[in-house]
């Protein structure tokens, strides 16, 4: 009986590359046998989820790149300013929610009743600057009543919000490169940096990194950028989706392509079809002999139309 027409059939293309639909198989790219000829091997699903494939860059054999802090650093001593917010810098929840909307640019400006006490007004302005460096506030008098008007800094006289951030966070002249850890999920390195560059209003080519990390994975790697403060980078974290930056450090040089010791992979294989005894023997062989770092078709691509592996053979 022939299979239902709704199911894709395995066919042979004109160039003798077999495929199911447009997907390559291991045989198509020359993956024909196991390292140990005595093992039967087993099948399973790889990279079914982002968390199934975790890649940490290795800066040295004992230094694994991980995101452990998203706090900006001080330019003078290179330490993070992770102190707790002083009590007089904490804004009421209802005001804080409105200021968040202005920062996201879903609101143009907002006004709040101002105290007649000058010192209280100054504390209010200071709290706004402390919690929202990209916003500006001013006191106005309307019909003998005082109000505090808050708006986005970029909306006032062409001033950019990040220009108002304290100079204490700017990169020192002798160490102008800000190195940071890039954590990402479901995005390749270039795409993640394009998003960050667009938010900073700089070209993504400004960033330097040792190598591109997988898209369908959770990865961490070091990135460098010149004359961008850790404060500006850290301020993006609340608005980034599937991306985080942190572990900042100012250095006199940028990262170059290949500036890494290697990568550490944590791989989960799902939907395994094999007896436990076969799996245990296979693991024992991995530990004894190692294995070829193919990870299936990762090194060759999955498209039967592109056939990048054929181009590689010719090169």
UniProtKB/TrEMBL annotation:
Keyword tRNA processing: yes
Biological process annotations from GO: pseudouridine synthesis; tRNA processing
Name this protein carries in UniProt: Pseudouridylate synthase 7 homolog
GO molecular function: pseudouridine synthase activity; RNA binding
Organism encoding this protein: Schistocephalus solidus (Tapeworm)
All copies of domain TRUD, residue ranges: 290-315
Catalytic activity: a uridine in tRNA = a pseudouridine in tRNA
Stretches with biased composition (Basic and acidic residues): 9-22
InterPro entries (alphabetical): PsdUridine_synth_cat_dom_sf, PsdUridine_synth_TruD, PsdUridine_synth_TruD_CS, PsdUridine_synth_TruD_insert, PUS7L_N, TruD_catalytic
Record-linked PROSITE patterns: TRUD, UPF0024
Keywords per UniProt: Isomerase, tRNA processing
UniProt KW Membrane keyword: no
Segments of this protein annotated with the region Disordered: 1-24
GO CC field: nucleus
Signal peptide interval: none
Family according to the record: Belongs to the pseudouridine synthase TruD family.
